[in-house]
Structures are given as C-alpha cells and as structure tokens.
Amino acid sequence: MKTKTVFISGAAKGIGAACARAFAKEKHNVIINYLHSEEKAIKLSEELEQNYQVSTLCLKGDISDYNQTQAMFSKAYETFSDIDVLVNNAGISLIKLFSDITKDEWDKIIATNLSSLYNTCSSVVPHMVRNHKGCIINISSMWGQVGASCEVAYSASKAGVIGFTKALAKELAPSDIRVNCIAPGVIMTDMMNECDDETIRQLKEETPLSALGQPEDIANAVMFLSSDKASFITGQIIGINGGMII
C-alpha cells in the first residue's frame, strides 16, 4: 500500500484527531492543523510518531484566513512532496436566535466553516490536477441538510459545504480527483460540553439507534472515502447520524 500524506484541518481534537489516528494506523503521513490547541496537537503528533512510526507535521494557522492558509500549505509542500488527501474538518458552532446574531458572528461562522474550504482547496487543487490524483473530504453537518432552529448561521455555512462539494466534484472528476462530504449527526465532541445530562438523554431518545455518535464513527467513513474501495464515489453526501435525519 502506497503511503499517503493527509492534511486535516482542526486535527488536534475530536473528529480531526480521530481521523489523524485512523490514517496513522494505516501508516500514512499526517499534517495536523490547529489554531488554539497547541498542546493537544503536539501530544497527538508525538503519539502518532511513537505508536505508528509515521511522519507528522503540526501547523498552527487560522484556515479562515487566506494568507495564513497559503503559508501553511507552503510549509506542508516543503516537508512532503505531495498532499494526497485533504480533510476539511475544522469548524465552529453558534446557537443563537437569528435576530441576536451580530454581523461579526455571522462573518466568523461563514469564514471558518465555508470560506475556509476555498482557502484550503485553492492550495491543493492545482497540485492534484497536475498529478491527476487526489481526494478531498469535507465535513458538513446534518443541519446543513435540514436546518436547525437557533442555528441559522451554522446551518447556512454547512449547507454551503454541501453545495461546494457537489460542484467541485463535478469540476475535478475529469482529473481523477474525488470530492465527497460527510454530514455528521450528534457526535460526542467538545461541542457537546455545554449540554447537560438531560439534554444528552433527550438527544439519544430522538435518535432511532438510541445512541450518539463518536468521533471514530466519522473517522471510519473518512478512511473509506479516501481509499480505493471508494474509487467510484464522488460528489456524495454521507449522513452519519444514527437515523436522526433520513
């Protein structure tokens, strides 16, 4: 099996870290992007290198900022000859009445969750097109599919990720580059820390499988979509939500 190099945004914890571990277990090089969680990123890097004997690179940078993103990818290409897989995972949430959302909050959500895809993809796509190979996996949300009350900005940004995925998949398919999207349901990450036990219980009851997802559930799907087993899959939105959205 050929060793791949994978760039994962927001990889220091949660879904991103689970993806990093999954790729490392398969002996792939992992580029760990982070913004605030430097200690966790460094610890994860050391864990992957020690446990799986892979090469890693920690890159601090705000993917919502075009110049910072370009600088990160420049460093990545200096370190590794290629980036075979891009996982656009980093994102932020906002639970608030629409009438209370400020312009700055709106701009931050759209920049981080949606405009960041332009920043990262504009960095890797020219290389992938030239090499006639590559795989891009975008992490959206089930709320991008159906919308959520009091999460208009978040839902809009994640719906944009879905449209971005479908359009880019059509454009890059002739270059043998696949672009897919995962729309997670309720996943037990740091975003759930503000939920009390009663809210967690109610969410489980609302889920047909009577359970909430784990970061590894998303990582498993990312691994599949990036593998040769998914060579005929592009432009698809894979819902991983325990049946909450069907």
Describe the protein in words:
Helix 1 crosses helix 8 (215-226). With 246 residues, the chain is an alpha/beta fold. It contains eight helices and seven strands; from the N terminus they run βαβαβαβαβααβααβ. Helix 4 links the parallel strand 4 and strand 5.
Keywords, separated by commas or semicolons:
seven-stranded parallel β-sheet, globular, Rossmann fold, 246 residues, 48% helix
What is the element layout, followed by pairings?
Elements: E1 5-8, H1 14-25, E2 29-34, H2 38-52, E3 56-60, H3 66-79, E4 85-88, H4 103-131, E5 134-139, H5 142-146, H6 152-172, E6 177-184, H7 197-206, H8 215-226, E7 237-240
What is this structure, in a nutshell?
With 246 residues, the protein is α/β, with parallel strands linked by helices. It has helices at 14-25, 38-52, 66-79, 103-131, 142-146, 152-172, 197-206, 215-226; strands at residues 5-8, 29-34, 56-60, 85-88, 134-139, 177-184, 237-240.
